[in-house]
Amino acid sequence: MPVNTKSIYEQPSDFDGIRILTTQYWPRGIKKALVDEYIRKLAPTRILLHEFKAGEISWGDYKERYLKEISNPEAEKEIDRLKNLALESTITVMCICREESQCHRSLLKALIAGE
Predict the structure, then answer these.
(1) Beta strands of the chain (E only): which ranges?
(2) Alpha-carbon span 66 to 12, nearest angstrom
(3) What pLDDT, on a 0 to 100 scale, did the predictor assign at position 1?
(4) Are 100 and 5 in contact (CB under 8 A)?
(5) How do strand 18-21 and strand 3-7 relate by DSSP bridges?
């Protein structure tokens, strides 16, 4: 299952396949043509993201709360759809964070890839 991740601010690549943006709001300066799908329901809530970025909660707390936020039938259906899409094509999950190791896209990648 080819599932990649990257920041939306990184240059597009021929290896990206289907580019999927998962944020609550559209990033400034990014043209819509750079994204194939925009899926808000898989993004962390603004409150959760703000608390993490402000240092009010740890990565462990963020991870736990994010996974709880997306443990609903609508999000699970979307993750299943992306799993099936990844069986046919390469997909790249993107958001605005520069660092993947502490970003929801790394968690989404694991869910989609079945890790």
Answers:
(1) 3-7, 18-21, 37-38, 91-95
(2) 27
(3) 57
(4) yes
(5) unpaired
| Angle between helix 59-69 and 104-113 (nearest 10) | 50
pLDDT for position 102 = 87
113 neighbors 4 (Cβ within 8 angstroms): no
Contacts of 70 (CB under 8 A, 6+ apart): 41, 42, 76, 79
Please name the amino acid found at residue 109: K
Query: What's the pTM?
Result: 0.90
Walking along the chain (115 residues) 10 residues at a time, the average pLDDT comes out as: 89 94 92 95 94 94 96 95 94 90 91 86
CA distance 22 to 82: 12
Q: Which amino acid is at 82?
A: L
